[in-house]
Design brief:
The structure holds two protein chains of two kinds.
Chain A: H1 5-29, H2 40-52, H3 65-96, H4 98-111, H5 120-127, H6 130-155, H7 159-167, H8 172-210, H9 215-224, H10 228-256
Chain B: E1 5-6, E2 14-25, H1 31-35, E3 43-54, E4 58-62, H2 69-77, E5 84-89, E6 92-93, E7 101-104, H3 116-127, H4 133-146, H5 162-175, E8 180-184, H6 192-208, E9 212-217, H7 220-226, E10 229-233, E11 241-246, H8 255-258, H9 264-292
Parallel strand pairs in B: 1-3, 4-9, 4-10, 7-8, 8-9
Antiparallel strand pairs in B: 2-3, 2-5, 5-6, 10-11
The chains are: A mainly alpha, B alpha/beta.
Bound molecules: adenosine-5'-triphosphate and magnesium ion.
């Protein structure tokens, strides 16, 4: 009997994993790579060490990886909330007015491709505080995709819905709240999903630069200790948390798209 | 001068009156349109339309495809403004959309994130915000029953068939108790059987709640079955109303026996002749522009 596609993929995935790990282990034993490179077995052992006890606390420079992830998640959440609180109302405003949309578009187009890290020195200069600067950078990182998607969602609401609201004599607020927002919700959440992804991407670099706490700082600190296995652990953890965040917003997306064709 | 088509001559009985209505869709005439070769001239969709509709009459507007029927209905709805002429509702000029006119759309236009009940509730709540909650619920319930949607109250539009969706559309339009019901090809997207079934439902509902109705349709049989008057439009551009026919078959009507009424066959033949002629000209000219243009 032929295996199902899912089975085939799973088997291939396992073969690849074993292949990579064996090549890695063998390569280190044969001294093919830089002497810094830890062996796969050592990495797995250390990985398990970090993962099995994520919340130990032995002073400021020796904390479990779970604490760092939590600190980073807190920063990302606050920055993301600030960014979204700016992007969604602004996006609605722009989406409702053609003139405003055309007027603001050049600013968005120019600022969107800039790495949020470029704002870091300005943040430091303005806020004079590394914690707030991290939030500032995350907020800026999460503004653009949400802003652009909200604008798109609002301006592409089926005009017939607006006609209905108009013919019923619905107030502007009621129309926005009851008609335009739910109709644009799938697009808005799609924007939020991209934003949280970028925010999580940027937090590592921001924390490396700003220092103190967080998973980015953890990576930098372990690099200074030349503990490569810890860095590899952090990379995998960052990836898993990012995946989780993306899935959460994916669920939210299905939920708000209920019954609407997307 | 075009002859005006007065449906009821005494002004006092006139509910809705269109006086010399024209609608011109402006072309793209700005300098950058010319530069980008995307300029176009103004398009006169309908020109000089006169129509008076008496209280509680069921009027159908029928015309070749693309002649400007939706344009006309949107003007009555107040969703767009006529380029010239005026629309009077109870003698007052129409300035914009309002809940005194209920609209049924061909595309149903139900909010997909709301259930059947919520869609109708939204309309009632918007138009009568001061009504008590129980009263609002009673109205919604009443109209769900009227259109035969009991049992589907908490379904979402994507779970409903086309016919059921349009029942919600009709209930939503009626639940705000409008003076006039405007319907733009409400059954156009349905299959023949469902269509016939809903026509019967419209007859039944209208017998219960006689209102002024303006129905746009492509179907001659539908117009004959439902209407008191049928306004025939000419082809566009600058479409006019060619003639208004009286349909005086007794009510309540039954589709099976309609054919037997004297005059049915003649009326139908007349409508067919007119529509066929207009459609032929439209199609022939579009073929010609495709070959030579
Ligand atoms: N917003 C618009 N701008 C420019 N031209 C328009 C616009 N809306 C409609 N038209 C044109 O006006 C004419 C009449 O359109 P309308 O939709 O009113 O016709 P209709 O009789 O309802 O057609 P159908 O039978 O397809 O429903 C068409 O030629 C159409 O191309
Ligand atoms: Mg139309």
């Amino acid at each position: 009997m032929p295996l199902s596609k899912d089975r085939q993929a799973l088997i291939l995935f396992l073969i690849l994993l074993i292949g990579i790990l064996s090549f890695w282990e063998l390569g280190v034993n044969l001294k093919l790579f830089s002497p810094l490179m830890p062996s796969a077995s050592q990495t797995l052992k250390d990985f398990w060490g970090w993962i099995s006890d994520p919340f130990f606390d032995d002073g400021p420079n020796d904390k479990g990886i779970g604490w760092h992830v939590l600190v980073s998640l807190r920063r990302v959440s606050i920055g993301f909330l600030i960014g979204s609180a700016i992007a969604i109302p602004l996006g609605i405003l722009i989406g409702l007015s053609d003139v405003l949309s055309k007027a603001v578009d050049p600013y968005i187009q120019i600022l969107k491709p800039v790495s949020p890290l470029a704002w870091l020195p300005i943040g430091l200069g303005l806020l004079k505080d590394s914690e707030r600067t991290a939030l500032f950078v995350i907020a800026i990182a999460s503004v653009w995709p949400t802003l652009i998607n909200t604008k798109l969602g609002v301006s592409s609401v089926d005009p017939v819905y607006r006609d209905i609201a108009r013919s019923l004599g619905a107030s502007k607020w009621r129309t926005i709240w009851k008609v335009i927002l739910p109709a644009a919700a799938p697009n808005i959440v799609a924007g939020l999903r991209i934003s949280i992804g970028i925010a999580w991407l940027v937090i590592v670099a921001a924390e490396i630069l700003v220092g103190g706490t967080g998973i980015g700082y953890f990576i930098w600190n372990e690099w200074n200790n030349l503990k490569i296995t810890s860095i590899i652990t952090a990379i995998v953890v960052v990836g898993l948390v990012g995946l989780l965040l993306d899935r959460m917003f994916g669920l939210l997306q299905t939920w708000v798209s209920f019954g609407q064709k997307t | 001068m075009q002859p005006s088509n007065y449906i009821s001559s005494p002004r006092t009985l006139t509910h809705l009156s269109l006086e010399k209505i024209s609608k011109v869709y402006p072309g793209r005439q700005e300098w950058f349109d010319h530069l980008s070769r995307r300029s176009s001239s103004d398009f006169v969709a309908i020109a000089d339309i006169n129509l008076d509709i008496a209280f509680n009459t069921f009027v159908s507007i029928i015309g070749p495809s693309g002649c400007g029927k939706s344009t006309l209905l949107n003007l009555i709805a107040g969703l767009s403004q006529p380029t010239s002429g005026s629309i009077l509702l109870n003698g007052e000029p129409v300035r914009g959309p309002g809940p005194d006119r209920g609209i049924v759309f061909q595309s149903y236009a139900l909010m997909p994130w709301m259930t059947v009940t919520e869609n109708i509730r939204f309309a009632v709540e918007t138009v009568y915000p001061k009504l008590s909650l129980t009263e609002q619920k009673r109205i919604v319930h009443e109209y769900i029953n009227l259109v035969g949607l009991r049992g589907s109250e908490s379904k979402h539009p994507h779970e409903l068939s086309g016919g059921m969706k349009q029942r919600v559309g009709i209930a939503r339009a009626l639940a705000i108790n409008p003076q006039i019901l405007l319907m733009d090809e409400p059954l156009g997207a349905l299959d023949a059987l469902t269509r016939g079934f809903l026509q019967d439902e419209i007859i039944r509902i209208w017998e219960q709640q006689r209102k002024t109705v303006v129905l746009i349709t492509h179907s001659i049989e539908e117009a004959l079955l439902l209407s008191d008057k049928i306004a025939i439009m000419t082809r566009g551009p600058a479409a006019r109303i060619a003639e208004v026919l009286d349909v005086s078959f007794p009510r309540p009507r039954q589709r099976e026996s309609l054919v037997q009424y004297p005059g049915y066959t003649e009326l139908k033949a007349k409508l067919e002749r007119h529509l066929y002629q207009e459609t032929r000209v439209v199609e022939e000219s579009s073929i010609r522009t495709r070959i030579h243009g």
